[in-house]
Amino acid sequence: MRMVECRILFTTPTIARFDNGPLLEKLSQDDISSTLPDLKTVCLIRGQHDSFISYSSLIEEAQYIPEHILDIFDGIISPYDVVNLQFTSGSTGNPKAAMLTHHNLINNSRFIGDRMDLTPNDTLCCPPPLFHCFGLTLGLLACLTHGAKIVFPAEQFDPVACMQAIDAERCTALHGVPAMMESIMDVPRPEGWTSDLRTGIVAGSPVPKWLMERMVNELNMSDFTSSYGLTEASPTVFNAHTTDSLHARLTTVGTVLPHARVKIVDHQDRVVPIGVRGELCVAGYQVCRGYWENAEKTAELIVRDEYGEPWLHTGDEAVLDVDGYCTITGRFKDIIIRGMCLPSDSITLETCVLMRC
């Protein structure tokens, strides 16, 4: 909160099994202003505390704000304003706050939903948390932009609750990291359980072929889509279509989303030919504004080419084929160059889905 100069904090006395009491007591102390000078309001979404306002009271107070004040702010706000500071550390390093705009997130979620063929008839079961770009953009916002229904099974990941939600809510889509998917499939099915699932995204780490086969055979997710992204790209860069061959969805992360551009470069930032490995770079609407109050890391992340075009350097090693399908093959920044080492000497990850967030 100190880093981002937070002014309003929404919280609860408990979050699943986690007790927030010690935090609330610390925030209620008189000397907290010296530690968090920018914090003006703490609002409890549920529960009561003498020192903080309740959510219902906050909403009631908002009714007294004059309409013309709201109209003024409505005219000031731009689609290109930062709406979300999404913390990420990438593979290593201290957490950094990626500055994501309305334009970044809404457009990215729209194209993600398009690739999944989401419609108002779909219901997504979304166990990934909303404080992560997976749950927020690929989950909540993708449903909002397509009129789909979203179900949050529990306050924290609970495979039994997920399995019950899939059945009770007749979910047609499911998101999760590989460990989540395996856990969900390993719990007992409710009596009379059936699956209406057809699609979904697995991300967060490499996904083995056997897990994808279980998703298709046991959960009926025949239209799953492979995907790649990173928080700084808000987050999705590549995503498969539901109509892509099973082989393409198992061995690649699909093709680049509309209105985005990618290139593969070597260590001298020179574009390499199709079929040659190098660092994946991204340009387009989904590139973040940089890191909050961290000009040095922003300069490392986003580099302008000779034409002045800003490119986000992902640090991931990738290769493109002649049809535009991408395969992530490792970490570009972690490759040790020794003697005449060639790109083909680097470690290859057998993966069909990777989202480095």
Structure summarized in a few sentences:
The chain is an alpha/beta fold. The protein is built from eleven helices and 20 strands. It folds into two domains: 8-76, no CATH class; 82-356, ANL, N-terminal domain (Rossmann fold), CATH 3.40.50.12780.
Give a structural overview.
The protein has 357 residues and is an alpha/beta fold. It has 2 domains: 8-76, no CATH class; 82-356, ANL, N-terminal domain (Rossmann fold), CATH 3.40.50. 28% of the residues lie in helices and 24% in strands. The model is unreliable at 335-357 (pLDDT under 50).
What keywords describe this structure?
357 residues; alpha/beta; globular; 28% helix; 11 helices; 2 domains; Rossmann fold
Radius of gyration: 22 Å
CATH class of the largest domain: Alpha Beta
Distance between the first and last residues' Cα: 20 Å
Characterize the largest beta sheet: strand count, sense, and whether it forms a barrel: 5 strands, antiparallel
Q: How many structurally independent domains?
A: 2
Count of helical stretches:
11
Number of E strands: 20
Q: Name the shape in a single word.
A: globular
* Helicity range: 25-40%
Q: pLDDT below 50 for ≥5 consecutive residues: which ranges? A: 335-357
What's the architecture of the largest domain, going by CATH? 3-Layer(aba) Sandwich
CATH superfamily of the largest domain: ANL, N-terminal domain
Structural category is alpha/beta
CATH topology of the largest domain: Rossmann fold
Strand content: 15-25%
Average pLDDT value? Answer: 89
